[in-house]
From TrEMBL:
InterPro entries to which the protein is assigned, alphabetical: At4g27190-like_LRR, LRR_dom_sf, Plant_NBS-LRR
Location of the Disease resistance protein At4g27190-like leucine-rich repeats domain: 152-272
Keywords attached to this entry: Plant defense
Protein's recorded name: Disease resistance protein At4g27190-like leucine-rich repeats domain-containing protein
Domain of life the protein comes from: Eukaryota
Length: 313
């Protein structure tokens, strides 16, 4: 059953719980609407009482709403195979959909919008989450503040507008590989970001990462990875990074799966981390002619090889 944008005058009380055999429920509403706050208490209690749910899509405006569902829902307590797409926090229609571009619409997703800090309920949900969106979140300086062991199942991660985050993963204190299943990582408008990874990198970390997108990040440096790091990376997208001077400190990474690079508005980027031996599967380099013309090369043969892959505008 789907309920979409029902109005303030809707008589919702008792309606949801009356469908006691309901298995799939989607409630779509703009959580910034004040009238939603007035009825959400009733709705959340009735949703939590449903005993046969197998799929739930719902926006919980406050953490206590989310906590009520997790602590009282008989379906959740049974540790069933119920799938969920949860949003927590007040958002508007411009907030990105983290599953929009990926084929994981039926997987468990959690989107935290305009929240603060780390709540134990968030950690419980993360353990079952495949797609995670952290949007305009405050009170954390890195993704690993949510405890990496809670992210073993994560396939997709979007971090946007979180201007207190300085690094994504702090490897100090970690004793094993993390984010082993992550396939898509998108970082957008994180203005204080200094690095994606800080500290030691254990084998298996980011081993399945296929797509990496960085957009509107002021500073970001990357070092410390082994030559065989990022073995599955196929697509690298760098957009509007005005202070980026290098993708990698040298050409030591193997890039064994890399097929496509897209670079735009990265005017200080003067070198590419490729040579005649690495990135053997690279097929497309997208960017501006002015940027390509300003690149510096140590080997003209590498330039000629890569130029044949260029799609410039």
């Amino acid at each position: 059953m789907s309920l979409s944008n029902f109005g303030m005058d809707s008589h919702i009380e008792g309606k949801v719980s009356s469908f006691n055999s309901l298995e799939e429920l989607t409630i779509e509403v703009c959580s910034s609407k004040l009238w939603w706050d007035k009825i959400v208490d009733t709705v959340k209690k009735e949703v939590a009482a449903l005993e046969k749910l197998t799929s739930l899509q719902f926006c919980f405006p406050e953490v206590d709403c989310l906590e009520l569902f997790v602590t009282t829902s008989p379906v959740w307590k049974k540790n069933s195979c119920m799938t969920f797409q949860f949003a927590n926090g007040h958002s508007d229609s411009t907030s990105p959909q983290i599953l929009e571009s990926f084929c994981y619409a039926s997987n468990n997703s959690l989107k935290l919008v305009n929240r603060n800090g780390v709540n134990p309920i968030m950690l419980k949900l993360l353990m079952k989450t495949y797609a995670f969106g952290l949007i305009n979140h405050k009170g954390v300086s890195r993704l690993s503040d949510f405890d990496m062991k809670n992210m073993d199942k994560m396939l997709v991660c979007l971090i946007e507008g979180c201007n207190e985050i300085k690094t994504i993963i702090n490897g100090n204190g970690i004793t094993q590989g993390v984010l082993k299943c992550l396939e898509h990582l998108c970082i957008n408008n994180v203005l204080k970001l200094e690095s994606i990874w800080q500290g030691p990198v254990y084998p298996g970390s980011l081993a399945q990462l296929k797509n990496l997108t960085l957009k509107m990040v002021m500073e970001s440096e990357n070092n410390g990875l082994e030559a065989n790091a990022l073995p599955s990376l196929k697509t690298l997208i760098l957009l509007d990074l005005p202070k980026l001077t290098s993708i990698w400190v040298d050409d030591s990474l193997e890039w064994p799966s890399l097929q496509r690079i897209k670079i735009s508005m990265c005017n200080m980027l003067r070198r590419l981390p490729f040579n005649n031996a690495n990135a053997t599967k690279l097929r497309f380099i997208e960017g501006q002619e002015s940027w390509w013309g300003a690149l510096m090369w140590d080997d003209d043969a590498v330039k000629q090889k890569l130029q044949s892959l260029c799609i410039l505008n």
